[in-house]
Amino acid sequence: MNFELSEEQKMLKKAAREFLENECPESVVRKAEDSDLGYPPELWKKAADLGWLGLIYPEKYGGIGMNILDMAILYEEMGRALFPSPHLSTVVLCGLAILEAGNEEQKASLLPRIARGELVMALALTEPEATWDGKGWLPQGVTMPATPEGNNYIINGVKLFVHDALAADYLLVATRTRKNRRAADGVTLFLVDAKSPGISYTVLRTTAGDKKQCEVVFDRVKVPAKNIVGKLHGGWPTLERVINIGAVLLSAQMVGSAEKAMEMAVEHAKTRVQFDMPIGIHNWVQEYCIMAFADVQGTRNLVYEAAWMLSEGIPCDLEVAMTKARANEACTDAHWQAHQVLAGVGFTTQDGVLPLHTKRGKVWQLYLGETDHWMEKVAQQIEKWPPPEKPKGKPLGIFNVPEDLQAPHWDVWANQIKNKGKLW
Amino acid sequence: MEFGFTKEQEKLRKELHDFYANELPEDISGVPALSKELQDFWMGLQRKAGKKGYLAPGWPKEWGGLGLGHIEVGIANEEEGYWGIAWPDGIGLHIVGPGLHLFGTEEQKKRFLPEISSGEKVWYECFTEPEAGTDEANQQTRAVKQGDKWVINGQKIYITGGYKPDWLYVEARTADTIPKHRGLTLFCVKADTPGVTVTALPCMGGYRANIFYFDNVEVGDDAIVGQINQGFYHVMATFEFERSNTAGAARAKRELQELIQFCRETKRNGKPLIKDPMVRRALAKMAIDIEVLRLAAWRTAWRFGERKRLGPLDFDLTGLFSRLNAMSHPNLKMDILGTYGQLRMGSKYAKLDGSIERGWQVTRSYHYAGTMEAIKIVLAGRVLGLPRIPAKLNTTIMKALQEKEK
Ligand SMILES: Cc1cc2nc3c(=O)[nH]c(=O)nc-3n(C[C@H](O)[C@H](O)[C@H](O)COP(=O)(O)OP(=O)(O)OC[C@H]3O[C@@H](n4cnc5c(N)ncnc54)[C@H](O)[C@@H]3O)c2cc1C
Ligand SMILES: Cc1cc2nc3c(=O)[nH]c(=O)nc-3n(C[C@H](O)[C@H](O)[C@H](O)COP(=O)(O)OP(=O)(O)OC[C@H]3O[C@@H](n4cnc5c(N)ncnc54)[C@H](O)[C@@H]3O)c2cc1C
User: Residues B383-396: what's their mean pLDDT?
Assistant: First the structure.
């Protein structure tokens, strides 16, 4: 047991904090809201120069070979600064899927370009009906058919809530290529040029007020069979794994954002004076700060544990599920607490960064699995827990005596219980 | 960062695990320890564990411990928690022992520590008074020096214990000071000293507490722990020393395992309870809360290992999370049992041996060793640096009150 960041991790954290404080102030976040790309390309390029885009890829694909725990530390900082970027979509969800399941040619051609910041990708997974049925992040939710036609496949259907679709050069598209089997068997991943004929995009107006999410309509889009990533019909395990990793990193991002909101609340509580005293002197205001603090610290431990297990290759479906389920609640809760403390200034959207956090927090809560989804995953895991172990010593037959029938031992008690009425 | 344990640590866990598995009777259930047979059993086990050094694994070998580090102590705590063990002398092991380590004289250490670590004795903590709960420094029990004796007079309330005590760890006023924290002193008082009397104070769930009266109780200078008038600070320092509680989460997890087993075996409307979405949700919530608590406790254990005690900017959220869980979990569990939830141990239809009902009652006590609010006050002031009502203002108010009384 050791909760200390390594020297390398501390350096990464410090460098990320400094870089984002300088390069990604509130104004940058606001400006990105209005752009189609959703992020400033200069900033993306600088992130590439810092090695953030290839952080977890092996060196031979242009990466620097760090692990998911390192990445989680970076994601906390990105959440804190609300770093507008397609990092999660490109580097994690699509990039890691390619790294895990892609063939050598795909890996060699795509990953170094991602690492250099030359390629943006988006994951097209959830579908309208599936999302409504609560199967958005389950294999049952993938129904959009890809039908073979010569050396090509024809994709036809609608994908919803596709993050970073407008910015993407390629889409990684989950399709159904085989039915009537287990849902997890028959999902195929395709690498689709985002500008292919037949694809159209409609921006979804969301809480965040940006243009990050789209409906993507595939109207008989033709994709060469060589663009399959991984095995035909065998895409789900890869997706499941990248969703797990993505959910943990997104949780790290939510912790970072929650921590920033908590710090703003504490700072405000110390400096805002009403009734001739700092408002932070009142237990109620302290309560908001403390609960936000507990949200942050409690969830951070979960994130680190899950990220560590993922990095070490230890099975951790339970820990991942716990992490995202709790982060979903904790992040929105911390934002809420901050709003209580900031009151009027926290509600205005023109100045003040809190609403930016709050609104993104809501979007992140609903992304890569809502609370219901992950709570059910937790239930599926703990359902398998064995009953507790029974002790093996010889039975004594002295238990199971209702307390009012027990013969008291210590004289004080004995006498007093005998003379009940008198002494009490 | 590392969330696993070393091979040696796993070996220690197995050793403790097997020891308790073999020592605890197979028909055990977590009844409040009151009957003679039960108390004899637990005292016997305490002595057995003491002989092996398991009671105080973190203490140096010369004082009867195993000289192990904080992570190892955390492992020992987890095993105690898993097997539902609450040592009769929890106070001696966790409050008095550390206090003596920090502030006791060499003589006191020699006299008391081996007795405590070998599980021979039972100590009670006598701090709280009717007028001094959260405001611990408000104690009115007095110790006055007369010749070479200290004479103690006063009353202590809510003092935990159903076992016969050997020693009392008493905090008493030795000076009238402003602020009042600066006039308290710690004493070791033999429980059968003339002038000590006691009244039982039965509590919810069969919990046993007491009121102690001190009527001209005489002790010598050698009874004083640490410095005169520094008792309050000694207690605070003790609380910050070696306090990691990994037992709570281990125990909670075991109880959840038990409940999950029950939900697998029990049907409602022809379907196992475990398939009911509301039940699943409640179980999942509890599992997450317990993991959050477990990690918070381990973080504190690790921190102590690094620093020996918590620094000013450090924090321990174990108390907060365990109190939050105590607020919601017993209700969630009772809801799962439905109407049967209210049945007590020994009732004809009681489920799970009435353990959930008992747990529900006992968790109403989760203000011992500091209320939720007291924990929050510390977090707000010490950790988050939020403003506090200035001490000066307190003093002004106190002076005004004293004037008024005159
Ligand atoms: C949508 C909106 C519409 C509004 N419309 C109007 C309007 O039409 N006309 C108008 O005049 N005003 C209006 N207001 C202002 C509103 O009345 C104030 O926002 C409100 O009174 C709180 O003041 P504040 O924002 O300065 O927060 P603060 O007073 O700074 O409070 C910050 C935090 O400290 C707490 N706090 C403060 N003092 C204490 C105390 N003694 N004990 C415990 N806690 C304390 C508060 O409860 C809050 O949690 C509006 C505000 C909003 C958000
Ligand atoms: C099961 C159990 C076992 C115990 N065992 C022992 C023992 O062995 N030895 C011993 O000495 N004591 C023991 N106690 C006593 C325990 O330490 C006290 O109950 C506790 O300190 C609270 O004191 P009180 O009950 O007088 O509540 P009070 O101090 O009267 O508090 C009442 C309420 O007011 C709140 N409050 C008080 N001051 C503030 C403040 N400044 N700001 C905000 N809120 C405040 C409290 O948090 C609480 O909610 C035990 C108590 C229990 C329940």
Answer: 81
Tell me the per-residue pLDDT of A194-203, one tens digit each, with 9 for 90 and over.
Answer: 999 999 999 9
pLDDT digits (tens, 9 = 90+) for B308-324: 565 555 788 999 999 99
Q: How many domains does chain A have?
A: 3
Q: How far is the CA of B244 from the centre of ligand 2 (A)?
A: 21
Task: Please answer whether residues B395 and B179 qualify as being in contact, where contact means their C-beta atoms are separated by less than 8 angstroms.
Answer: yes
- What ipTM, to 2 d.p.? 0.95
Q: Where would I find the H helices in A272-316?
A: 283-312
Which residue type occupies A360? R
Is the shortest distance between the CB of B134 and ligand 2 below 6 Å? yes
pLDDT in tens, B41-56: 999 999 999 999 999 9
Asked whether A282 lines ligand 1 (CB < 6 A), one says: yes
Question: Cβ distance A288 to A298 under 8 Å?
Answer: no
Q: Exposed, middle or buried: residue A8 (CB in 10 Å: 0-12, 13-18, 19+)?
A: exposed
Which CATH number belongs to the domain containing residue A343 in this structure?
A: 1.20.140.10
Burial classification of residue B258, based on how many CB atoms lie within 10 Å of its CB (0-12 exposed, 13-18 middle, 19 or more buried): middle
Domain around A202 = 123-234
Count of domains forming chain B: 3
Kindly state whether residues B360 and B248 are assigned to the same domain: yes
Statement: residue A421 has pLDDT above 50? no
Q: Which of B131, B368, B397, B398 to mutate to test the pocket of ligand 2 (most atoms within 8 A of CB)?
A: B368
Q: State how far the Cα of A221 lies from the Cα of A124, in Å rounded to an integer.
A: 14
Is the minimum distance from the CB of A341 to ligand 1 under 6 angstroms? yes
What is the predicted pLDDT for the residue at B120? 97
Reported as a pLDDT band with limits 50, 70 and 90, residue B253 is very high
| Closest-CA distance of chain B to residue A244, Å | 17
